[in-house]
Amino acid sequence: MTVRAKICGINDPVAMETALDHGASHVGLVFYPPSPRAVTPDTAGALSAIADGRAVRTGLFVDPDDATIDAVLKAATLDLLQLHGAESPGRVSELRRRTGLKIMKVIRVGAASDIDRTADYLDVADWLMFDALPPKDMKNALPGGNAVSFDWTLLADRDWPLPWMLAGGLTVENVAEAVRLSGAQTVDTSSGVEDTPGRKNPDKIRAFLEAVAAL
Q1: What is the pTM of this model?
Q2: Cα dihedral across residues 91, 189, 191, 171: positive or negative
Q3: CATH top-level class of 4-213
Q4: What is the predicted pLDDT for the residue at 12?
Q5: Quick one: pLDDT at residue 149?
Q6: Every domain of the chain and the residues it spans
């Protein structure tokens, strides 16, 4: 089984080049200002250009309005929109139609029952992502990128008609186990390749991608 990897929260050219040079299938740009990984549309445009034709350029949004989407797409070319908020199936369908782009809907998982929400998006999304639901007592929690994982066995032996990614606290040390337990064929990391929130470490990016390539 070939496993692919997405490096999310890229906000500088060195991190982008490192991810691309070492085989990332997807690269993620964050458009959620509270995140330390957030980029402006202009910065995203420059980073997106580096990745042109080399990886799937993914924009992470949290309950975005049309004006936010329009401002980003005017400055940066994206291939996939990652919706990390409480977007309804109707909103997902609307954004897919309005932008003409593929959509990845994130399902945040804390318990097995959370995965049941997947059924609502199977007809309107192109990808699914399963990320960890942060604990209720976690201070300053973000929608994603909290270095928190969930029980990967909850995804084992599941079958969906859409491709999906596994996210949430993945590092070079645990990605092999995460893939073994979940059956994921695409994995996503952000905090797992950083020195501090928002500061990507090229050596950690390289090591993570090498670990994934070896699976």
Answers
A1: 0.93
A2: positive
A3: alpha beta
A4: 97
A5: 84
A6: 4-213
